[in-house]
Every structure is written in C-alpha cells, then in structure tokens.
C-alpha cells in the first residue's frame, strides 16, 4: 500500500501532476458550490468549450495554452452577461450561442492550422501527467487570485446567489458580482482543463459540490466539504490512472461520480 502511494512520486512528472490534481480538486468545487446553488452547470460546460480558440492560439504562437486560454475564458464569461443584458435574451440562450460559436471557431482553427500538431484526445480528455512547471506556476497564480476573490467578495456573492432579486433592489453591485463570479469560474475552468480536459471539466466543477450539497446545508461548510471530496477524487483518480494505465481525467471523473452515487444512495436509505 505504501508503494502504491509513494513509488509514483519518484518521478517529477507525477509530483507535478499531484500538485495540479490537488489544485483542480480544491478550486473547481469551491467555485462549483456557487455554480450548483445558482444552477449554472451548463455555463461551466459552455466556458470549458469556449476557451478552445484561445488554447489553439497558444499552440500556434508557441506559448503555454493555459496562458492563452485565460483571457479567452474571461472575455467569454463577460460576453455571456453582456449579450444576455443588451440583447434581452435569457442567460441560457446567450450561453448556447457563444458556446457553439467559440467551439466551432476553435475547431476551424485546428483544421486550418497546418503548422501545429495537437492531440485532440489530450485536449478533450486532459493530460495532467504532461503538466509542465510553467503550468504549475500558472495554476498556483490563478488559484491565489481566485481564493482572494472568493474571500473578498464572499458576502456579496452569497447575497446575490440566495436572494438575486433582493440584491438588485438593495444595491447595484449585484451585476458586478455576477461578472466577478463568471470571471472566477472561467479562471478555474482553465485550471481544470489541464487535468480533466474540455469535456470532463464540468464534472469536477459540479459533482463534488453537488455531493457536498447532499451532506451539508450551510454554505461555507458545503464549500469546504466539496473541496475535500474534490481533492480526494482528483488524487485518487490520478493514482488509478498511473497504476492501471488509464486517462487521468476520466478516472478522476469516475471517482467523483462514484462518491456522489454512494452519498446519494446512503442519504436515500437514511430518509427511507
């Protein structure tokens, strides 16, 4: 058992992957708690797909794709809110339009970029075992920025999440808080894509938070429980992927989903 845990850490790439897994497992559920509370799961999935053009630009420019994905994610997050308000459309409609357009643009860029070779499987399913030191530093910087934002804006984010109408009547900051949450969501998704890929990042964003929602009713303890379960799922999935030669992103997702199924089943029996 000790060898199962310690032996992989003899390799530098596994140490970097472990650090990245913990960051993803903690940060995605922390922001995911707001996503679950506000019913914004579709937005998380849309943003994950919408950053594809930025990542492709990064590959084409020869820079870390994570760096290029950050401004793209932030811009799309802001556009969702802007389009929704100015065009008089529902948030879901705006998300659907931008999600489809940006993802299609990314695919066209991939098809026309003959000078670069990109493994679509790594892009869509994640490749945390290939995380570079630069990627770790970027993830740490984004993590620090998002944690600072959550700590500073927690009161207003909580107010706008549980009483959106009252927050708009009380103070115009509610619109600003919506933008702030969307930006932090985009930043966290950029971290998550490295581990779980474009397709599965929503699972790490939503599943641990939804599991914690079944167990804890107060919001802050829910966030903490979600972060613990998310980190446990990410690290466990990483070790499973290493020892059984499986892709890391799907392994993490299956572990997180398994925890959710167990908690949901136990809760149902407890209330039967």
Oligomer: single chain
What portion of residues belong to β-strands? Answer: under 5%
The unreliable regions are: none
In whole angstroms, the N-to-C terminal distance is 37 Å
Order of helices and strands: HHHHHHHHHHHH
Question: Care to give the gist of this entry?
Answer:
The chain is an all-alpha fold. Helices cover 85% and strands 0% of the residues.
Describe this structure in words.
- The protein is about 85% helix and about 0% strand.
- It has helices at about 1-5, 10-40, 40-50, 50-60, 65-85, 90-110, 120-125, 135-160, 165-170, 175-215, 220-245, 250-270.
- It is globular and about 55 Å long.
- The chain contains 12 helices and no strands.
- By secondary structure, the chain is mainly alpha-helical.
- Helix 2 (about 10-40) packs parallel to helix 8.
């Amino acid at each position: 058992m000790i060898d199962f845990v310690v032996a992989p850490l003899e390799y530098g790439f596994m140490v970097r992957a472990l650090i990245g897994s913990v960051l993803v497992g903690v940060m995605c559920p922390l922001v995911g708690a707001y996503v679950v509370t506000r019913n914004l799961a579709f937005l998380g999935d849309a943003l994950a797909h919408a950053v594809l053009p930025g990542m492709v630009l990064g590959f084409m420019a020869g820079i870390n794709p994570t760096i290029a994905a950050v401004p793209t994610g932030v811009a799309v997050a802001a556009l969702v809110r802007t389009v929704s308000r100015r065009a008089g459309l529902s948030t879901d409609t705006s998300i659907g339009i931008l999600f489809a357009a940006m993802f299609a643009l990314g695919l066209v860029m991939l098809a026309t970029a003959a000078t670069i070779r990109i493994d679509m499987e790594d892009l869509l399913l994640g490749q945390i075992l290939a995380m570079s030191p630069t990627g770790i530093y970027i993830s740490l910087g984004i993590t620090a920025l998002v944690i600072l934002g959550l700590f500073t804006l927690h009161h207003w984010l909580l107010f706008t999440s549980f009483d959106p109408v009252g927050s708009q009547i009380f103070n115009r900051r509610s619109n600003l808080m919506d933008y702030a949450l969307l930006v932090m969501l985009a930043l966290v998704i950029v971290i998550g894509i490295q581990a779980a890929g474009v397709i599965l990042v929503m699972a790490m964003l939503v599943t641990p938070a939804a599991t914690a929602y079944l167990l804890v009713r107060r919001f802050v303890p829910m966030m903490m429980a979600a972060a613990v379960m998310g980190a446990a799922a990410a690290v466990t999935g990483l070790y499973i992927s290493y020892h059984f030669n499986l892709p890391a992103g799907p392994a993490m997702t299956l572990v997180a989903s398994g925890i959710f199924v167990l908690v949901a089943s136990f809760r149902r029996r407890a209330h039967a």
